[in-house]
Amino acid sequence: MAKVAVLGFGVVGSGVVEVLETNAQSIAQKVGEPVSLKYILDLRDFPESPYRDKIVHDFDIILNDPEVDVVCEVIGGVEPAYTFTKKALLAGKSVVTSNKELVAKHGAEFLKLAKEKDLNYLFEASVGGGIPIIHPLHQCLAGNEIQSVIGILNGTTNYILTQMFQNGVPFDQALAEAQERGYAERNPSADIDGIDACRKIAILGSLIYGRQLPTDEIPTEGISKLTLDDVAAAESAGYVIKLLGVYRKLHKQVYCRVSPCLISKNHPLSHVDDVFNGILVNGNAIDDVMFYGRGAGKLPTASAVVADIIDCVKHRNVNRSVIWEDGEAG
User: Fold this and answer.
1) Strand 276-283 to strand 253-264: parallel, antiparallel, or no bridges (unpaired)?
2) How far is Cα 165 from Cα 31, in angstroms, rounded to an integer?
3) In what order do the strands lie in the sheet with 239-250?
4) Which residues pair with 247 in a beta bridge?
5) Cα(42)–Cα(12) distance, rounded to whole angstroms?
6) Buried b (16+ CB within 10 A) or exposed e, 73-87
7) Helices 24-31 + 11-22 axis angle, to 10
8) Can you give the pTM of this predicted structure?
9) What share of the chain is helix, strand, coil (3-state, %, to 5)?
10) 65 backbone φψ class: left, alpha, beta (φ>0; ψ -120 to 50)
11) Which residue in 121, 5, 7, 2 sits closest to 73, CA to CA?
12) Catalytic one among 38, 93, 105, 200?
């Protein structure tokens, strides 16, 4: 029986626990053995939760338990997620995560460490939430030279832009509605300033290029300056505006940026609305492939995290992680 520890019992963490428990039988059939939740690490107590007996407050309990095969880090942010991830890998435990900030900043370090230990560091949920994109790029499209990735990578900004274009709602009002619906945080800067999308395109670019692409070197512009006048001008010319993360390979150099862009209404990404994400990948053999779905949310994100847990359990002591190096792109 494989044992799993979940770090963080927030929205995504509770979703991971729910999927593990609800789909326990089918997961066991796919893996060939039961996959059991042993610990949930959180600073809080959850006396009303059916999983209250699994709550621990000390990470060392998980770290020192040889039964724990996979650590699922869904805390978010850099610390203590960085420290916990590194200690888990050094202790011989594979790690899966949805933490885009941590992967974007320290992915190369953890991938190298996982390889040295014959473990896995998997992060499918860090870019597209429930949309499979890391695995397809790494394996299904491995026979291609990837020329470009263009993506609507943030559901909050896409919701706001949809409201502005379809319903004539001003930016401030659309943002307030997004916050009321739970699509935007109280401090929405990471979304509306393009930071979230920047982290995601950096992860995808690093995966394709094989070298860490620092987020602070990717030109990034958000949507907070857009007005209904901009919307009207775009519509009159037959365009919509989407916040896009763009990766392009130009000869031996790569180009990345995040910014609002005009897209023709005939373009497939122009029809990706509301909180949905869309990622268009161009390869020299397959041409264009598009990935579409919910890029965030409790269960869609948990779905991708649990898929990585299954992969880790099925391939114990076999490194399945992608590899990219520290350093700058040319």
Assistant:
1) unpaired
2) 46
3) 253-264, 239-250, 146-152, 276-283, 287-294
4) 149, 256
5) 13
6) bbbbeeeebbebbeb
7) 70
8) 0.92
9) 45, 25, 35
10) beta
11) 7
12) 200
Residue 316 has φ and ψ, to the nearest 5°, of -60, 140
Q: Is 200 a catalytic residue?
A: yes
The one-letter amino acid code at 118 reads: D
Q: In Å, what is the CA distance from 162 to each residue of 50, 131, 186?
A: 39, 20, 20
Per-residue pLDDT of 125-175, as tens digits, reads 999 888 999 999 988 898 899 999 999 999 999 999 999 999 999 999 999
How do beta strands 287-294 and 35-41 pair? Answer: unpaired
pLDDT digits (tens, 9 = 90+) for 195-222: 999 999 999 999 998 888 999 999 999 9
Helices (H), the chain: 11-22, 24-31, 59-63, 81-90, 100-117, 125-128, 134-135, 155-167, 171-180, 189-192, 195-209, 228-236, 298-314
- The CA radius of gyration of the chain, in Å to the nearest whole number, is 20
Q: Tokens in use for 277?
A: 């994400």
